[in-house]
Amino acid sequence: MRLAKLGADPARRPRTYDSGHYPAAMVIAIDGPAGAGKSSVARAVAGALGFVYLDSGAMYRCVALAAIERQADLDDDAAMGEVARSLAIRLDGGRVELDGSDVSAAIRRPQVSESASRVSVHPHVREAMVALQRRMIATGSFVAEGRDIGTVVSPESPLKVFLTASPQERARRRAAQTGEEEAVVLAAQRERDERDECREHSALRAAPDAVEIDTTGMALEVVVERVVELAGERGLT
Ligand code: DC
Questions:
Q1: Of 30, 113, 139, 211, which sits with the fewest C-beta atoms within 10 Å of its C-beta?
Q2: Structure confidence by residue, pLDDT tens digits, 28-57
Q3: Is the CB of 35 within 6 Å of ligand 1?
Q4: Ligand 1 centroid vs 216 CA: distance in angstroms?
């Protein structure tokens, strides 16, 4: 059977999404640290293949934004889990809606980046977001980007890509996007990298069967071409 058919076969769909029995969904997993180019690559690959783009980082950012607005304790797992479970998050291409409001710009603020890194360490937050992500990806063909897509959210993905780039290049890219100073971004990035890599639950790491691509000095189109080529080799196109 061609892999492309798996996600469409209702017999392979889970009865409950949280049971741990979910299908080998048509998910291309793109993981890696901030600034490695995941968003641009995932969006372009999704466009090229006609898949839906899922930005899991935007969901953790929504939890952080809601927690800030509710003045909740960002370091309290139970409180953050409650916030995470209470949210209505809608992702529509690049647009992010939280409880009916467009928060696409608000979730990119530096304060939210910092807070998202803090709230995403909590097991209850991760549990809620992973369940939501699994429900989303069970509905079709996705290119999903994040930190734990290939390791936790969708370990059956037929194609897992782990994107990296040097810390300097990652900071340069982020600074160009946000208009912040590169040195400031680099310092904050170092702290977030450490938290992402060292947290107890779903720490950032490549899945054993992921294809690693170091995008330092690589043009976006070249990376996209490589991922589309890998998808073709695996019968996903
Ligand atoms: O990719 P991003 O910078 O938008 O992610 C925001 C934060 O969420 C970042 O600190 C890492 C965290 N995150 C995560 O823990 N797991 C994911 N699958 C995606 C993001």
A1: 139
A2: 999 999 889 999 999 999 999 999 999 999
A3: no
A4: 20
